[in-house]
Amino acid sequence: MTVLIAGCGDLGTEAGLRFAATAHRVVGWRRSPEKLPPEIEGVEANLASAGLPPIPADTTAVVVAVAADSPTEDAYRAAYVDGLERVLNALKRDAVAPRRVLFVSSTAVYGDAGGGWVDESTTAASGGYSGRILREAEELLHGQFHGTETRGIVLRLGGIYGPARTRLIDQVRGGSAVVPDQPRYTNRIHRDDAAAAIVHLMTMKSMPSATYVGVDNYPAELGEVLRFLASELGVPELPAGPAGEPRGGNKRCSNALLRSTGFEFAFPSFREGYREVLAGTGVRHP
Prior knowledge:
By secondary structure, the protein is of the alpha/beta class. Helix content is about 35%, strand content about 20%. The chain contains eight helices and 15 strands. It has a seven-stranded parallel beta sheet with strand order 3-2-1-4-5-7-12, sandwiched between helices. It starts with a strand and ends in a 5-residue tail after the last helix.
């Protein structure tokens, strides 16, 4: 069985390696396929342009894990809506009907909930262009496979951190981190758990739901995370004050539906995850 990963960047590569470890053939579409490890068959492809490569006829699973080139509305639309549409058109062009197609979305579709809880049943109502465009892509996916044997799955990931994703660590270490003077909840997931969730949903025996929230078990107040990192790094007490507009809004995302499928997190909270990242970077305080 062949798994196609369209947009085989950091997250897609980690997922691809996990698919390959379970004896799947993995084809990765990427602008620079030479950067992919040998376990993944790299194929040059640019989802922002027409003329995508042929899709292997035995493809049973497709993962669309794209990223915008810049934080602009045009770049988001080109990546998430237009890119997904080109992949779906390529499936029709080549008459390939996979069992499952998963689109990596974001909890940004929910916008701000004033610190309240959200889950898959919560109406997506983002006030920003990023959430609105991602929601449009989600609807495109589900509309494409409605009434067919192919299952379209949306995985709404929280903030991904991990190897090479060290924004908060860099802020604390560099002295620019500010503890918000008002409580602000954040939701995150380690890169490895995000990749494992993709593989789990694409290979589980029971039929997946249409949408899942992909975050760890502990929606954390940002100040708590920053103080933890400061302690781990041996940084003096952080200043408190206005911290600007929250990234992704102030909300607590529930992963209960994902966990109900039997998925288990390697890093159930930011503490385990960031300790693993710090150990890998060699900058953790003794």
